[in-house]
């Protein structure tokens, strides 16, 4: 009640907020979102999830910055997949049909569903090794004729 009366009378003390620590802007910088791999899976998941979408948690794979999106804890047996070396990780990740499985220092797993490359291209993590492949469109004779007619 006394505090309310001091405010109403205009006599409440005013303490200016210090400038240091007064904002969260420093957290939102891309350089502050690099993944530190020497942590348990739950911490890795929370780091990736906490930076999903802006600025995006990232790591280096094959010399390229890759940003991870859409993580979830993966509580099952280690799935079959193609190994992917990740800079700083004690164990390679696994590209599986469901996404990229990465390991915490506790041996538990995190599933990452989407990856974004430096050029802005985003792919499902399960397509990492097939992302550079291109398939040529093959036309039947009838379709070739139709294409010629259209030209």
UniProtKB/TrEMBL annotation:
Domain Formyl transferase C-terminal as annotated: residue spans: 29-131
Alphabetized SUPFAM superfamilies for the sequence: FMT C-terminal domain-like
Molecular function (Gene Ontology), one example: catalytic activity
InterPro entries: Formyl_trans_C, Formyl_trans_C_sf, Formyl_transferase-like_C_sf
Name of the featured protein: AL1L2 dehydrogenase
UniProt source species: Xiphorhynchus elegans
């Amino acid at each position: 009640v006394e505090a309310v009366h001091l405010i109403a009378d205009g006599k409440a003390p005013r303490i200016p907020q210090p400038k240091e620590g007064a904002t969260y802007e420093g957290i939102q910088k891309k350089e502050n979102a690099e993944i530190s791999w020497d942590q348990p899976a739950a911490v890795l998941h929370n780091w990736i999830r906490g930076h999903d979408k802006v600025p995006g948690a990232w790591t280096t794979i094959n010399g390229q910055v890759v940003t991870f999106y859409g993580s979830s804890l993966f509580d099952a047996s280690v799935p079959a997949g193609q190994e992917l070396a990740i800079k700083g990780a004690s164990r390679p990740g696994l590209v599986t049909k469901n996404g990229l499985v990465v390991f915490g220092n506790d041996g538990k797993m995190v599933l990452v569903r989407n990856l974004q490359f430096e050029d802005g291209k985003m792919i499902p993590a399960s397509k990492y090794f097939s992302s550079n492949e291109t398939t040529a469109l093959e036309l039947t004779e009838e379709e070739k004729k139709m294409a010629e007619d259209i030209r």
